[in-house]
Amino acid sequence: MLRVYLSGEIHTSWREEIIEACDGLDIAFDAPVTDHAASDDCGVAILGAEPNKFWHDRKGAMVNAIRTRKGIEEADVVVVRFGEKYKQWNAAFDAGVASALGKSLIVLQQPDHDHALKEVDAAALAVARTPAEVAQILRYVLTGKLPA
Amino acid sequence: MLRVYLSGEIHTSWREEIIEACDGLDIAFDAPVTDHAASDDCGVAILGAEPNKFWHDRKGAMVNAIRTRKGIEEADVVVVRFGEKYKQWNAAFDAGVASALGKSLIVLQQPDHDHALKEVDAAALAVARTPAEVAQILRYVLTGKLPA
Amino acid sequence: MLRVYLSGEIHTSWREEIIEACDGLDIAFDAPVTDHAASDDCGVAILGAEPNKFWHDRKGAMVNAIRTRKGIEEADVVVVRFGEKYKQWNAAFDAGVASALGKSLIVLQQPDHDHALKEVDAAALAVARTPAEVAQILRYVLTGKLPA
Amino acid sequence: MLRVYLSGEIHTSWREEIIEACDGLDIAFDAPVTDHAASDDCGVAILGAEPNKFWHDRKGAMVNAIRTRKGIEEADVVVVRFGEKYKQWNAAFDAGVASALGKSLIVLQQPDHDHALKEVDAAALAVARTPAEVAQILRYVLTGKLPA
Amino acid sequence: MLRVYLSGEIHTSWREEIIEACDGLDIAFDAPVTDHAASDDCGVAILGAEPNKFWHDRKGAMVNAIRTRKGIEEADVVVVRFGEKYKQWNAAFDAGVASALGKSLIVLQQPDHDHALKEVDAAALAVARTPAEVAQILRYVLTGKLPA
Amino acid sequence: MLRVYLSGEIHTSWREEIIEACDGLDIAFDAPVTDHAASDDCGVAILGAEPNKFWHDRKGAMVNAIRTRKGIEEADVVVVRFGEKYKQWNAAFDAGVASALGKSLIVLQQPDHDHALKEVDAAALAVARTPAEVAQILRYVLTGKLPA
Amino acid sequence: MLRVYLSGEIHTSWREEIIEACDGLDIAFDAPVTDHAASDDCGVAILGAEPNKFWHDRKGAMVNAIRTRKGIEEADVVVVRFGEKYKQWNAAFDAGVASALGKSLIVLQQPDHDHALKEVDAAALAVARTPAEVAQILRYVLTGKLPA
Amino acid sequence: MLRVYLSGEIHTSWREEIIEACDGLDIAFDAPVTDHAASDDCGVAILGAEPNKFWHDRKGAMVNAIRTRKGIEEADVVVVRFGEKYKQWNAAFDAGVASALGKSLIVLQQPDHDHALKEVDAAALAVARTPAEVAQILRYVLTGKLPA
User: Fold this and answer.
1) InterPro entries of this UniProt entry (chains A, B, C, D, E, F, G, H) (predicted)?
2) Is residue C47 situated within a structural domain?
3) Residue-range definition of the domain harbouring residue F134
4) Whose CA, among A64, D118, F59, F87, lies 20 to 30 Å from E143?
């Protein structure tokens, strides 16, 4: 079984596209919580409100870290998707963690970000442009079959 | 001796400010190559030109990784500076590497980036706003003395 | 599956409350032996009496360590509960072990211990006040759902 | 050279007694910041005040962790002193970290704490009652000479 | 599930006694090949004869190491039995490997060997005198129940 | 269960012979993609053509590394087969990786390569001449039974 | 200081060329024994003759491993040179070891070996064609200066 | 510099012979305390008498472990000498620790112990018969020079 962690951008359906395209393969997918509001507020919703936004964010980020750490540590392959918008520093941070832990890293991003992502890409075993390419890689890795 | 790696933004004098403010302390500072042009072109300048910009960048990023990996792996403290501009994904990537390797992480950034950096900050032992604060932390860590 | 080790105070029903509140989740809970008398006497009961209480205690603590080491090493999340009474140094010791092994640490304690526990809390991803909060964290980590 | 980290109680002169009694030996001693006020306030003194005492403490504990982590990680021997008063959970936490990192642990404590410390003691290679005994152990370890 | 590796003496039925006394417990036992002749000759029987006894032995010891390494590395608990006869250096070697890998070590030996085994015993969490004691420890570790 | 990775030469049926001869044993075999053309072209077939053969090869080698890394890291035993032809540097590279990761290494090669492979052989627990010998080793390791 | 291990081909002066071109840099170079006869015979010359060439080679390879293991484990950068002739499996093996240990790998080889070395190259941070290029990389890594 | 730990038999002058024969080489030698009486009694001499010989021995063995652990962990090469007499289980235990930590192991023993030591020898890179042979290996490893 291949364990794949899908990190990064949460506003498009790229995760679902990969998972669907991998139908029939022996893969266990994991991902962060992708409900943006829940992810932002989980800390204070459970552990009590914070008047200071900095600690509001900190509480949430630490609770989310329980899930993301486990997801990355148990993965064989970490796919990190950089979207068109936002800073996405958490995605690059996850890529750094994955790299330092020796995970196989696949970056999913568009060419206009190539230069800005060159250090992240240089730590990756593949730079893909579409979810379909990621799925084709996973299929090849497991079955040895290339797309027709 | 404390080994401190100064990662991130390369267009202002924050590294020099920290180093100067730590005068007299037993610290060995390290950093990436901060000559932007050399850093971008080192791969092709040494190993031969690439017509494709993607591989041009890759060659350079890999050569730079020889230096940055060693710098982070040997550091006790990794300071990562996020500036006002650019994507700075390499800075967030370095923070992820430092975190996964168990380094003490200090993030240097302005409050308007707090929300975007919340996952990175949550992995840090300090979030500083000025180079002077970073230097005061390093001085306290080594001497136990607080700023007057 | 999430593996959760429940360390610390053994005189109240906090473990049962967490486990019950996590009903339906894919969690494997583990814990030390919570039978106080058995835990104190296991060494001499099996391996022979010791006239010196120091070695009586040592024998028991070493036998218990076979269980607690495995429990902590195999856990994804270590919850450490500090109660109102006793020194509870073994709880703080377990927290230190968990932290050094990179486990996600949740501390369960009351506010009057905040200052005394500040170093332990600083190594934790969450400081909870009730077993219900711990369960809500675990539920969110696994399902992404916040309490209503 | 032997690197020895002296963790725990900060209100008596036990560190100085050990260091003095080790005069002439090739030992590098390290310790946390033992100025109680500075240790409590270092976070807010450098990084800005916090109205909430919980985060005041957290900021300080995280800055102190930069020093204590390095001290323990670089040590060959970690001596943890439990005094007569206070909860001292940070001392037990340090002992847990030291144990998990495979450091040689020496506990310095009085017999009335033997039962409460039995799990910590069980992870130690020596339980000493006086600073002089700790120094004699260090002298023996380095020179093979026993006290006359 | 507890994984227990039973190392050492191969001429008595101590393994069977432990396994039988652990009936009903969730334990996976492993052990080296205990057929003395097969163990001695496996190298040359499969890979070809050696005129020099030194290499005859080496070939066999290396093939056996494939099994023993895996057994010890995957174990939670390593029980090492020292019998009344022979040098049994392989048993002490296995104990050293287990100790360096952080396994919970139980030594099974008679009191007349206490002094000769003091360094090995000092790395163990229990020194048992009978297979029944080992089984009682394993039962207590898994169930918290002491022998009646 | 024993996990065995079969690395190296891909033009003969040695893998099938070993697997067949291990029929009935609790072994999970893994291997690289052995379809030569797919293995050579997987990078460009999925991620886009490269005019430069060097990067064509690089892209493929990196995609294949996702599979081979996982295969070697999860293996208990790595068998590396050196055939009669070709440089087979990837086989020797895999042997180096396996050795550094502490895997049990079995080399399968003919005597005329003994001198050239002496450093690789010296890191192995067995040097076999035929697939049947490898299978006999695996059978002995799991069952303790020698070939009749 | 940068520690560089120079592995591989021993019949040309590539090591001397790199070392000379790095004059003035803070680099400690290490390498295997490059006296071919001594390297082949060290085992039997010291530990006694072996009638069987296989064990003759084994004895020597194991003695040489004492040096090469230390050299690679302590290196920051491992340069592996593949020459025009011979199997050079020990060079590829060293590259595998270096890669698994997370060392920065530089491969020095000619283009006609590109395809055969593609898996080794894919684990490297640079593929150089001349000793001068290797030296330029090392100079850039340490000083940030590119060749004029 | 090569760090060499000399473990095992303490009743002959083998350590001195090796050290003397390595005169002029850049080697740092370390060893356990070789004063038999001090080694046996160090625990009780410093930490107080024990009426039970088992705990008398335990206390001493644990204090000695502070030195031996450090010695082995910091060594590049561990030489383990088995003499003609005694059980010497501590020597075999040290060999196991050294092997599990990936140290280069040299065993020094006479042929009549070959069969009993076959598992230990199989983990070693050299089996030497005399201190002179050990010194010749160390000299070759450092200088590449064979004995005349």
Assistant:
1) YtoQ_family_protein
2) no
3) 2-32+72-143
4) D118
Residue C97 lies in a domain: yes
Quick one: CA dihedral F136, F139, F143, F148, positive or negative?
Answer: negative
Q: Would you call B125 and D65 a contact, using CB atoms and an 8 Å cutoff?
A: yes
C-alpha dist (Å) from residue H27 to H77, H128, H131: 10, 19, 15
Work out how many domains chain D is built from and give that number. Answer: 1
The closest CB to that of G126, out of B41, B62, B70, belongs to B62
Q: pLDDT (tens digit, 9 = 90+) per residue, C19-56? A: 999 999 999 999 999 999 999 999 999 999 999 999 99
> CB–CB of C2 and A70 under 8 A?
yes
Tell me: pLDDT of B148 over 90: no
Chain CA centroid to CA A96, Å: 12
Chains contacting chain C through 3 or more C-beta pairs under 8 A? A, D, E, H
Q: Are B46 and B20 in contact (CB under 8 A)?
A: no
Instruction: Report the distance separating Cα H92 and Cα B132, nearest Å.
Output: 55
| Residue to substitute from F52, F53, F59, F62, interface B, most B β-carbons within 10 A | F52
> pLDDT tens for residues G73-91?
999 999 999 998 889 999 9
SS3 (DSSP) at E79 = strand
Q: What is the CATH number of the domain that holds H27?
A: 3.40.50.450
C-alpha D135/C-alpha E132 separation (Å) is: 42
CA distance G82 to G117: 9
3-class state of residue H10 by DSSP: coil
Which one-letter DSSP state was computed for residue A101? T
Inside any domain, residue A57 = no
Residue G77 lies in a domain: yes
| Chain H CB contacts of G45 below 8 Å | 146-147
Question: Strand D126-128's sheet: what is its strand order?
Answer: D27-30, D2-8, D77-81, D104-108, D126-128
Sheet containing F126-128: give its strands across.
F27-30, F2-8, F77-81, F104-108, F126-128
Span G89-129, pLDDT tens digits: 999 999 999 999 999 999 999 999 999 999 999 999 999 99
Residue D30 three-state SS: strand
Helix axes B131-143, B14-21, angle to 10 degrees: 30
